[in-house]
Design a protein that fits this description.
Elements: H1 9-15, E1 27-31, E2 34-37, E3 42-45, H2 48-51, H3 60-70, H4 83-95, E4 100-104, H5 107-126, E5 132-136, H6 145-150, H7 154-157, E6 167-170, H8 175-181, E7 186-191, E8 194-195, E9 201-202, H9 205-217, E10 221-225, E11 249-252, E12 263-267, H10 269-272, H11 288-301, H12 304-328, E13 331-337, E14 340-345, H13 353-362, E15 365-366, E16 368-369, E17 374-377, H14 385-405
Parallel strand pairs: 3-15, 5-6, 5-7, 7-10, 10-11
Antiparallel strand pairs: 1-2, 2-3, 4-12, 8-9, 11-12, 13-14, 14-17, 16-17
Enzyme class: transferase
Subcellular location: Cytoplasm
Main location: cytoplasm
Length: about 400
């Protein structure tokens, strides 16, 4: 019966809580790096569901894994374990610094687990006074009350009553500002190795080394939020692999499931031991469907061909953006790494990223913003090169459209 219900964008305003303002069109089908709306109009996808659809839409490996698992076993609860979860955990620990994995449903849940674990680790090893968590301005770690307070954007966390305590924010890429806040009462420092929502801002390698040193000096855990940067997005399986700095805890989601909701927290055996039986949990975390799809995504992405291909596509994106910039003088720089890039609007166009985002959709291109001054691109890691070129042609038309309107 439900398949025959006629739905349109107006229905959203009738039945959905108004915390989102979705586009006027409704996509109904996706294949690779293209999607089609209800009217059959085609779009090239440079948004990737906000860095989630790492293998595009309906990738055969993911579809096959989901269909196979759907015929086997969907859900058990964590009173029992399951084979897909165990296989995925083994592959994640084999491929990273980590020895133990906790599964959740999202990046926010993975971060929630990481922060709770850090507090518990500090309490049991050092005492109740060691509870301070330090994050950075412009950071984003999720929308639960704990993670949104830890995130560095007060516009997201204000207006919900008293916030969780003992959380401070330093300035990203400024070691002195972190040093000023840290003490032996700091239990953890959490950061994105490349800030996503905050404007696609890469961490300076010297800054990361400095954070690691300060954490070691003060017996604090270093937590990497790799929800957006993880699983091939930057051209390595995880962004920490670009440097000589290894975190104590790493969180991952988004690309991990290629579009199926799944998140994970990775850490060492010693740290993990503080989440004893009953201290934390999730009804759906590690369910067989999610883990089967994530395993297929990980197997597909964690290959030299795909990871090297991400860096080749990075270069093609930059070449195309440079050509557009030569014509229109829009951007002061292009930041980021791999298939997580931010074109930063110059002073003349500051505050207008949303206009370009909307014009792009008019021209058949799905893009993103990262704040008012940055146009963000987070497409499939395997987007065909001809889709990049054609998508950039559409973006050039969008730029012309915005400039002609003014």
């Amino acid at each position: 019966m439900s398949e025959y219900m006629q739905v349109d964008r107006a229905l959203f305003d009738q039945v959905m809580v108004p915390n989102y303002a979705p586009a006027p069109m409704i996509p109904v089908r996706g294949q690779g790096s293209r999607v089609w709306d209800q009217q059959g109009r085609e779009y090239i996808d440079f948004a990737g569901g906000i860095a989630v659809n790492a293998l595009g839409h309906c990738h055969p490996a993911l579809v096959s894994a989901l269909k196979h698992q759907a015929d086997q076993l969907w859900h058990l609860s964590n009173v029992m374990t399951n084979e897909p979860a165990l296989r995925l955990a083994k592959k994640l620990t084999d491929a990273t610094f980590a020895e133990k994995v906790y599964f959740a449903n999202s990046g926010a849940e993975a971060n929630e687990a990481a922060l709770k674990l850090a507090r518990r680790w500090a309490l049991e090893n050092f005492g109740a006074q060691k509870q301070q968590i330090i994050s950075f301005g412009k950071s984003f770690h999720g929308r639960t009350f704990f993670t949104v307070t830890v995130g560095g954007q007060s516009s997201y966390s204000d207006g919900f009553g008293p916030k969780p305590a003992a959380i401070d924010h330093a300035e990203y890429n400024n070691l002195d500002s972190l040093k000023a806040l840290m003490s032996d009462n700091t239990c953890a420092v959490i950061l994105e190795p490349l800030q996503g929502e905050g404007g696609i801002i890469p961490a300076d390698p010297a800054f990361l080394r400095g954070v690691r040193t300060l954490c070691d000096q003060h017996n604090a855990l270093m937590i990497y939020d790799e929800v957006q940067t993880g699983v091939g997005r930057t051209g390595k399986l995880y962004a920490y692999m670009h440097s000589d700095v290894t975190p104590d805890i790493l969180t991952t989601a988004k690309s991990l499931g290629g579009g199926f909701p799944v998140g994970a927290m990775l850490t060492s055996t010693a740290i993990a031991s503080h989440l004893k039986v009953g201290t934390h949990g999730s009804t759906y975390g590690g369910n067989p469907l999610a883990c089967a799809v994530a395993e297929a995504a990980l197997d597909t992405i964690n290959t030299p061909e795909v990871l090297n291909g991400v860096l080749q596509r990075d270069q093609l994106f930059r070449r195309e953006l440079a050509a557009i910039n030569e014509q229109y003088q829009l951007f002061s720089e292009v930041r980021g790494q791999g298939m997580l890039l931010g074109a930063v609007l110059n002073d003349q166009f500051k505050g207008r990223s949303r206009e370009f985002f909307l014009a792009a959709a008019d021209q058949g291109l799905l893009a993103l913003v990262a704040g008012p001054d940055v146009i963000r691109f987070a497409p499939s890691l395997v987007i065909p090169e001809q889709d990049i070129v054609e998508g950039m042609q559409r973006f050039a038309k969008a730029v012309a459209q915005v400039l002609n309107q003014h």
